[in-house]
Task: structure prediction
Amino acid sequence: MATIEFWGGVGVIGGSKILIQQDGHRVLLDIGLDIPSGGDLFRLPVRRRPGRELADRLRLGGAPALPGLFAPEALEAGSPLAEPAGETAVFVSHPHIDHVGLAGFVRPEVPVHAHTDAVDVLTALAATGQGLTHGEPNWRRLTDNQRVSVGPLEVECVPVDHDVPGASGYLVHTPDGTLAFTGDYRFHGHHPQRSWDFVDRAAGSAVLVTEGTTLGWDNPERPRDEQDVARDFAALLERTPGLVLLSLYPRDIDRVRAFLSIAEAAGRTIVWTEQIAAFLRLVGVPQALSPAEVPLTELHAEPGRYVLMPDPNDLPSLLDLPVGDGYPLACLAHANGEPLGPFEPRWAPFTDWLTALGIPLRQIGCSGHAGQDDLHHMLERLRPDVVFPIHTTSPTRLHPPRGVRRVQAAYGSSYTFGGDSV
Result:
């Protein structure tokens, strides 16, 4: 009988890792970095020890203690986890660190799959110095609705809408029924039909594993959508006479392209950091310009013609820009870029610098995760036998319809398809 184990994403946002086993064959859905509920012990300013990145995380319970998954050289000498196990395959839902961050430690004989668009993003990140710790696995590219067999298990890759290319859910077909895993998804982005199509393909599954990020948020209003983001960016460009600074998540290629069009219509040019411009060109945005192509003299001459992404790791460079006293009013449009928010150590110094230079902060982004109402509409439409809410601090706030049983996953515990535990 097939079993399910949860090795991440339990009671926290991120770190999803779901292991499905059948007759000695294993499928691992996602392999993200864990952020423990008490806070990430490896957050800045902690420096990771070279060569011990995985071993130190395992020592502290910050990575799954699964035998036969990780390369022996990344483990403690003599670790029992280095022993080979049954046939294993990893399937990554999308290229965010909390879903893919441990993939570089996987042993070479274990295939690591992801949608081809996600692999394009990951290889571009690696080529521009933003790759995974311990290098990249030998990526196995998947296309829409492609199926891969792992012994008696068959894994189907189904696109969903998220804020990064190649986001996918998975349907794991077992002899005891189908498990549907949403990955991270939403219904208010650029491609909502992808997520609804996934819901329809997964309808009636024996087990649903869904992310529930927004269940932990108290927000009675409707979720902001990409139309709101585009409208607010256009409005900021119109009413800001000076330089507009931009904090935008560069892996959200749909939003990058939308902002480029909005800026062009407003008579402005977006200038990215060198690293981000190089990344964007590799993923098919050839018009991405860097500071090397737009010198500071041009920004000072006509600040109202430009939008600039500053480097949050080089805050003193803000002093070189045409902002503050003696310059037209500037602002910073924060559209889900770095630093991400008050929970991040870099946020306080970032906002302190903006305040010191008289740069108003305007938050105009929207979530990459399904809102609470959409999560409940999804559940009504999909109607699995059992639902596991993960990737949330509040799993009990997902209220299934009659006939659907909600199970709160426990870390490392095993659940059986069709058995009393599921």
About this structure: The CA atoms of residues 277 and 288 lie 5 Å apart. The two ends are 12 Å apart (CA to CA).
